[in-house]
Amino acid sequence: MYVGMDDLWIQVKMVTIKLRKRGRGMLNQSESMHGMWSSRLMFIFAAAGSAVGLGNIWRFPYLAGENGGGVFVLAYLGCIALIGIPILVAEILLGRAGRQSPINAMLVLAKASNASPAWSIIGWMGALAGFMILSFYGVIAGWAMAYVADMVSGNFVGIEADAAAKSFDDFTGDPLKVVGWQTAFMALTITIAARGVGRGLEMTVRYLMPALFLLLVVLVLYSALTTGHFVAGLTFLFQPNFDDFSSNSLIMAMGQAFFTLSLGMGAIMAYGAYMPKGSSIVGTAATIAVLDTGVALMSGMVIFPLVFANGLESSAGPGLMFITLPIAFGQMIGGQIFGTIFFVLVSFAAITSSISLLEPAVAWVVEKTRLGRARGAVLVGLIAWLLGLGSALSFNLGAEWTLTNGMNFFDVMDYVSNNILLPLGGILIAIFTGWLLSEDQLQAQLAEDQGALPVWRFLTRFIAPLGVLIVFLVTIF
To answer: Are the beta carbons of 74 and 418 closer than 8 angstroms?
Structure first.
């Protein structure tokens, strides 16, 4: 009897050892089943493309305009260093360690670290947040594509303020136009995602990211040579004005630093799964942050001289891109050409972001079903498009339909994803990576970054989650 029990115990131990080895093999595999970036540069392009979007070209300039220019930029840069980069490193690390979709990667990593499987909630929250954001992001990106057509056709040449505002209101008030452009943008996003990592995602960022930076440089030169207010724009953007800065401005800077890097939405973790081994994660994250911040600052260098040259309001809020700038381009020499370039730039940035928002959910569907890459991308993309119809109609037919606290469908999707899911996801990512992830995984993934490990660990354990928690609490309460 006792001999039989001993034999059974030995067999159980052998099976357990095999399972552990299998789990370690999954964690240490060199490639993802979905494909791999061909080089570190391509990963940087892809991750920077995910980070660079409407938040850089649209949101950052108007936030700076509303909060004192230079002092907001200083606060923003500090928050990028103390909050953004540490969590960016953590997301890339988790993705490369797991080599799967964020949902499955977190499940495997939690088990390997002897943590509760409930930590897979990080992957679920990220995928859900990215999916929700994509649903309304496609609507706004559709606006940008529509404005490319308007610029090309000369609709904004010589336009005045009232006419520009009316043009925007008429466009967003037409459900057929809004849904039509949303559909065009989402179809493009789905097509790229369906082609896979190499032929779809990488091929897109390989060409669009250099083109995006080239267009931005052209617009900066245009702003410098034609507006006559380039120095005034630089002064406004980089000279601190502490009178216009408040504690609320600091909170906004912290929030922008977190959101601009695409943190907490699964995109960076999904892209990290395709990152080659042997590349420095900390160095790569710093490069991505520099590129992302550079686009935001250069966008301000384009926008503010145009605004000042035409006597427009620098703190025009969200209408800055769709009302104020068309007025500026409409009054400038060569404005039709360079206005077209600007909205092409915005559309490029939106595309590189949207494909990253779709990727976490597509990767999970491919892993869990037999649909394959193309069908999985179509299925997920169509659901996102259908959900986005609620946001598209929030500006016209459904403008009066409120769901809670006077918010329409678009407002609710924006609020839940950006103000709840993303910050909570960021906090949980910092806690899991800083406190619970196994030391073996940390050492393996940060082997090229041993010198930075103590600083990163301190920021990830204490500073970054505290900063995001402050933003979260202030926003909610």
So the answer is: no
Confidence of residue 46 (pLDDT cuts 50, 70, 90): very high
Closest CA to 287 of 43, 82, 60: 43
* Two structure tokens written together for 76: 């923003």
Architecture of domain 40-476: Orthogonal Bundle (1.10)
Q: Residue 236's pLDDT is what?
A: 86
- Burial group, residue 102, by CB count within 10 angstroms (0-12, 13-18, 19+): buried
Q: What is the rounded distance in angstroms from the CA atom of residue 357 to the CA atom of residue 351?
A: 10
DSSP string, 25-94: HHHH-SS-TT---SSHHHHHHHHHHHHSSHIIIIIHHHHHHHTTBHHHHHHHHHHIIIIIHHHHHHHHHH
The 10s digit of each residue's pLDDT in 223-258 is 999 999 999 999 988 888 888 899 889 999 998 998
Q: Would you state the structure tokens that stand for residue 476, as one six-digit string?
A: 């909610």
d(CA 92, CA 43) in angstroms, rounded, equals: 10
Q: Name residue 405's amino acid.
A: N
CA dihedral 217, 223, 226, 227 (to 10 degrees): -170
pLDDT for 143-153, tens place per residue? 999 999 999 99
Rounded Cα–Cα distance for residues 301 and 323 (Å): 18
Structure tokens at 343: 């909205």
Q: How far is 372 from 367, CA to CA, in rounded Å?
A: 9
- Write down the domain spans for the chain: 40-476
**For 97-143, what is each residue's pLDDT tens digit?**
999 999 999 999 999 999 999 999 999 999 999 999 999 999 999 99
- Average pLDDT (184-210) is 97
Answer yes or no: are the C-beta atoms of 51 and 288 closer than 8 Å. yes
